[in-house]
Amino acid sequence: TTTTTTTCGLNMVDVAFIVDVSGSVGSSNFGLMRAALADAVRSLNVGLDTVRIALMTYHAQQFLQFDFNDFVTSEDVASAIEAIVYDDSQRYGTATGAALDFFVNSFLTTGAGWRAGDTLVYVLTDGMSQDTVEISANRLRTIAGVQVVALGITSAVNENELLMIASTPSDVILVADFNQVETAIQEDVDNRDTCTTTTTTTTTSTTTTTTTTTTTTTTTTTTTTTTTTTTTTTTTTTTFTCGLNMVDV
């Protein structure tokens, strides 16, 4: 008997979002981005032993919205994202380099619930940074297990800057406007799904021994049957990642 079971999804991965909320974003566009992120996390298997989610926002300053162990269900994470308020009291600048440093210092710690393993980081920005990015980006990218995706929104972004941030050129995603953010994130997450196929083969063999005893005075025949059953089970587990832009999980 052979049984094959396949399960897919991100598992045992810490996923973080670093979100630009500078003045160029605007309240309406932030609402689109916020909804996109909430919908994306609803599709993930969130839990303390599965996928953990963290999120920070930034403009000229940095804000820790929630870390990896604050919420243990996808709906709780989505609700926390939907509760974030955009500050349009003034037109803040963009300091992406400082945001990357803040993320490393504040989120990539055991106290923040980071498991120091496979970590997928999305950096969402709609423009050029007004500080230096290269050193901070290199610091983040070179941490073991960390994969960084740079999502540039609108034509105002600097693609070379995004290439500095992203782990590989294929980890740079460009979209024309904020309406495309949800599709871009969802497709990237789907492409990083890890599928595990488990095949179990069970082989059963039966041995039968028959003994016959005959007595000459009174003919008596005794038949004893002994049945021995041996069951061998072999389980093979294969893990593979579907699509492009792979993260090993």
Describe this structure in words.
By secondary structure, the protein is α/β, with parallel strands linked by helices. The protein contains 6 helices and 9 strands, in the order E-E-H-E-E-H-H-E-H-E-H-E-H-E-E. It has helices at 27-42, 74-82, 96-107, 134-141, 159-165, 181-191; strands at residues 2-8, 14-20, 52-58, 62-66, 119-125, 146-153, 172-175, 194-214, 221-241. The strands form 2 sheets. A 6-stranded mixed sheet has the order 4-3-2-5-6-7, with helices on both faces. A 3-stranded antiparallel sheet has the order 1-8-9, with no helix packed on it. Strand 2, helix 1 (27-42) and strand 3 (52-58) form a beta-alpha-beta unit. It is globular. The chain starts with a strand and ends in an 8-residue tail after the last strand.
Brief synopsis:
The protein is 25% helix and 35% strand.
Q: Strand order of the main beta sheet, please?
A: 4-3-2-5-6-7
Class from secondary-structure proportions: alpha/beta
Number of helical runs? Answer: 6
Average predicted confidence as pLDDT: 84
Tell me the overall shape.
globular
Q: Secondary-structure element sequence?
A: EEHEEHHEHEHEHEE
End-to-end Cα distance: 30 Å
Strand content: 25-35%
According to DSSP, the number of beta strands is: 9
The main sheet comes to:
6 strands, mixed
- Show unreliable segments: 237-249
Radius of gyration based on Cα positions: 28 Å
Share of residues in helices = 25-40%
Describe the secondary-structure layout.
Layout: E1 2-8, E2 14-20, H1 27-42, E3 52-58, E4 62-66, H2 74-82, H3 96-107, E5 119-125, H4 134-141, E6 146-153, H5 159-165, E7 172-175, H6 181-191, E8 194-214, E9 221-241
Helix pairs in contact: 1-2, 1-6, 3-4
